[in-house]
Amino acid sequence: MSDIGGIVAGIKEKMKAEPDRVAKLAGLTATYQFNLSGEGGGGFYVSIADGVATIEEGTIDSPKCTVSVSLDNFTKITEGKLNPTAAFMSGQLKVSGDMSLAMKLQSIIG
């Protein structure tokens, strides 16, 4: 199982390797906080402005959208083994803040 540093590095690599993913962020301004529970978990945030995403370990003040999920389920979501909508509906993934921003997450981390 990955630790939070590995998750952040993996998302950064995915963004570099898939320029179309970054293009989908054009015009979006948002801050997301991810709180991953369980062994190896922790927090990281994604800040998006002017088509540029900054992804760092830790927390950000006043995120527009906060996602709380176990590290295990987050890993399954990013690997395509768990549908994020199904995880939300079953209570395995919780979202607070701007729900419309939550719907755009697949473009960023999926």
From TrEMBL:
This is Sterol carrier protein. The keyword Oxidoreductase applies. Belongs to the short-chain dehydrogenases/reductases (SDR) family. Residues 17-109 form the SCP2 domain. One of its GO terms (molecular function) is oxidoreductase activity. Pfam families: SCP2. Coiled coil: none annotated. Keywords: NADP, Oxidoreductase.
